[in-house]
Amino acid sequence: MLVAFIAISLIAIYFRTYPLHGGIFLALRSSESIARGIVEEGMRGQIGAVFEQNFPQLSAEERGRLVYLQIERLKQENRAQYEEALRQTKAGVERARGTVRKMTYLLEADPYHYFYQAEKLLEEGPFKNPVKDGKIFQPLMRFPHGHWEPILLHPDVGLLTYRVLRLIDPGITLMQAVGWVPIFLTILVLGVYVWLGKILTFDPWGTVVGMLALALSPIFIQRSALGWFDTDPYNYIFPGLILASSWIGLSGKKRFVPAVLGASFFTGLYSLFWTGWPFIFALLPAGLVVSGALLWALKRFHASPESLRAGIFAAAYTVLSLIFLAVFMTPQGLVDSLLMNWSVFNKFALPGSDLWPNIFLTVGEAGGATFAKLVFLTGNPVTFVLALLGVFFEGRRAFKNGDPLIQFRFLFFLVFTVPLFVMALKTERFSVLFVLPLAVFISFAVNGLLSLCKGNSSNVGGKGFWDKVSIRRAGMVFLILLIFLPMLLISAHVVAAGIRPIMDDVWYGALREVRSKTPADAVVNSWWPPGYFIAGIAHRRVTVDGGTQQNQASYWMAKVLMAEDEREAAGILRMLNTGGESATALLIDSGMEVPEAVELLLKIAPLGRSEAHALLPSFLDEKQKAAVLDAMQGHASFPPTYVLVYNDMVEQNLAVSVMSQWDFKKAREIRGKPLEKEGEGFWKGLWGGRNSTYIKELPRITGEFLRYASLSPLIRREGTLLWFKNGLRVDLGTKDAIISFPSERVQGRPSQLFYLERGKLVSRAFEENVLKVSALFFEAEGTYYSVIADARLIRSLLFRLYYLNGQGLDLFRPLVSRGSLAGGTVVRVFELEREKLSA
Domain map of the chain by residue range? Predict the structure, then answer.
């Protein structure tokens, strides 16, 4: 088993460290081969776009042939230019290969939240921030209130790893060191599974195959790759320890007390590593009680020691876990954690329960997963079939054998797994939790398949070569691995090769520049995904991030970004950075309904204090009015305020535009529908009923989704005529415009053509043969670009900041601009000139 453990650990590490070696395909290809492919693909794209524009009547195959011939001709006629492009690209590939040997940045945004905490621990020591009721205060989050979040020991693990690795490599940075934490935790996960397999009496080969399924699960690779300094691996470590401890106690009387103490202790400790710990606290005792009741029913309602033991264990586990949880988290922290988890669960499972827009709908992993997607997230069709075989073999063994303990084990793991399966289908994020029971049933399957090799014990070794159990077992193991392993390795490679950090030199450079160019008390406002980037690297305060996106600030930030009046945007920013959500709360507490309160705040946000005061409702007394205005504007200048926009926010603007168009009155109507009339209650909501209704009603609440086609470069110019790749043609002189998609039989004029004239955004409207989109064209970086989109998007602050770099705006001044519109990451930061906004 030790050899197998080491081998599987090395395989697991290999697929999680692609940033260091690039994978087998990169290793086998030369730099010149890769460079040639990049250069010729670029030529193919440019020439293909021209051919598609000029020869729409040709088929794709014919155009492809012409493109190939044109590339070959250009390579011959412009050999020196082609070779120079090849040389430069090859040099870039070799530089990239050099950096691939070293982890530069962490993956995703959440790891930067924990990195920042580890950095503060290194610099200041533990608990310099206020601590109360098992929570620690994070001053950079959810400005201006700050944010209390549960204390987690994950940053301490990162700091410990850094100190250990410094003994090996004194030059290692903190970011590089914490990037290795998931690799070490993965090895620990495999060790826990070996112990769990021993407790559950798996055949050694059953444990090996289960470990492979666990180690190479795509979702687990994604969430434990080099640089993923996040809390996901703990979701295998602690549930594995809790299940193993529980089964020790359920298997006999002698170790019952230490086992229940161990399971309860690990549950308490789990709460210090992952805030979603209540799932195991609820599922384990519920699974024990339900499976014990099922066993009691199977025994024709006769008392069973196993059922009785399960009931006692569930009760003892619940009480002792609460004690350990209260010790580790404090009693108030425990209550707050349970309430928070219930609130988040409601956001995921019952999005119709809140009048405010549910930001979780904009998070990819918060959506439901189809069965097919779940299969490929957690493994592949072969692993799923094998797990189903595990259900069959273990069930057959349980009911054929008649052993109550084996029957109870089968029933328990089935009862334990089904809710996790439903949760994973309901919310993709929970597919992480489904991997461990999936691996257990795969181990059951191998146990069952190998049991077929035993044959009749009286014939073992007696009737020829193929009757020997060891030979039959070896053949069966070979067959299992032959069927099981190839697809597992292929899917692992595909996932590992696709892992790329969001953070890059552009992001890092921009955030460091923000840190150097802004005062320490500055607030950087943006959409929620880069919040942890801003706090972790720029060390600046934010109003919303990955841990607080469910708050109302997300809605207000969407209104800022989609505002067509920059004064409205600036007024909302002033409100956010003065009192946060306090003004809304004050109006609602005074008796106003949410829709009316939001409507009023949007109306008075850009106004001065006296003008705003005049519009406040008469039922508010002067003290209440003053409190609302103080929450919106304060008495003095609000903090230095900045707005950060970036390429993904613009290119994936649907989430922002949907949130900004939220109609609270329509949402109130839909929320007011009695669920009983629709036959939808709590449990149907969990299965998707209320969620489906909510999503189905979304267009009614938000209006139509705004059309958008991504940025398009200029592909040809003849005099004053500009041709763009997206089919837009513009005459610079007359500002005439046509959009033409011959392949889709679409041709017409944009409803409006937007452009800059004397530094101001202006537009020309068309009346004949008009399409339901508008267009923007502008000059940047020495060339022209165009965008086809809804006019509301083009007029929005978001588009004007990102595409026009703030040209034509009076209140927002460019501060930082990194990256190129021609491709890749672009980050732009603007300062709100507060003195120009009337107070």
Answer: 23-99, 510-701, 707-836
